[in-house]
Amino acid sequence: MRSKILTGTILTTTAMMLLSGCSGQGNYTREGVGLAKQRMSFLKSATEWEMGRQAFLAGDLDKALEKVDTSISINNTVVKSHLLRGRILIEMGELGSALKSLHTAEGYDPEFADTQYYLGIVFERLNRPEDAYLHFAAASEFDDYNPAYAVAASEMLIDLDRTKDAKAYLNGLPMAINNAGIRQTLGHIAMIERDPASAVGYFKDARLLAPDDTGIVEDLIHAQMLAGEYAQAERNISALLKNKDFTEREDILLMHAKALMETGRPVDARSIYQNLLSLDESKSNTEAWAGLANASYMIKDARTMRRAASRVVSLEPMSPEGYTLWALAHRLDENDLKALDSINNAIERAPNDASMYAFRAVILRDLDRDGDAIASAAKAASLDPSNASYQRMLDQFNADRFASVETTTE
Hints:
Layout: H1 2-58, H2 61-74, H3 79-91, H4 95-108, H5 113-125, H6 129-142, H7 147-159, H8 163-171, H9 180-192, H10 196-209, H11 214-226, H12 230-240, H13 250-262, H14 266-277, H15 286-298, H16 302-315, H17 321-332, H18 336-349, H19 354-366, H20 370-383, H21 388-409
Helix pairs in contact: 1-2, 2-3, 3-4, 3-5, 4-5, 5-6, 6-7, 7-8, 7-9, 8-9, 9-10, 10-11, 11-12, 12-13, 13-14, 13-15, 14-15, 15-16, 15-17, 16-17, 17-18, 18-19, 19-20, 20-21
């Protein structure tokens, strides 16, 4: 009897152990299957995301959106999926939907710099510069060694007319000294502040840090021209023109001609203007015609100057420039009466331009109309009292007239 009881107990215990073992194995197997399915889900989501990214980079926005939507439907908790969706929608011009996707990404990881950056882009396009600045600044805070974020934040401050804040913000960054983009942006701020000399310094720094960036070279040239550093600008333009991408750039050629004029090479400047004006697309360029007139005046090419002055008047009849050029042309022909008529026409179109009254004073003096010459010089001095040359002209005219009266009296 005892044997039977023991046998029954052993069998029962064994059965329970077996049942327990089977139950544990089943749970383990189900957990493994679940993990495997999860891994497959992540893998499939990542694959769809990568296909979406590749389509986005190739410019196929519809396919990119389809793939990223599939990726999100498989796993909707991945920040980069919502970020990519936002970027695609930005390119499609659907800013409201882009904002929604980016805010979703922000909700999963508010300190992800790229999300903040693209939120800034959306707000910039929505013409909300304050919001754009806050997001760009956040992106820079979360990744303070990415200059694109910092530059974008500073540009929003500039749009908000806070150039001083933009300057202080950039200078406070740890990468401010050694980053070309930041030095270049500081140069742009200096240009806005009408400080081309400082801008030259910033652009030179940027050029040393990024010597192959032609955009920085262009900025440097513009600053050098405004700062009166024409010889340095001319050298940089000549170097830039060795690049075939710039040989037909109208704006670069015009700057080159002007730099040549300012460095005493009017013949070379005239050649550039003539070559430029021989092109159909430049035949109505007033700046080029005016430049040709000035270069021709410098080398006493009266025929070309008259043609250029006439062209400027016909292109912009309400501008004083063409009539001023005609006055110079008549001076070249030693016809001061016609020069006076032309400068009077110019003054009618720009009655507050001190330089034209000074020019008229010189013509009147050569016509022996000393009283009128003094009156015109006085007008120039009153319109621009900061220009000492006008006051010196007035003083000289008065002194000469006084000396002449004394001589006559004797």
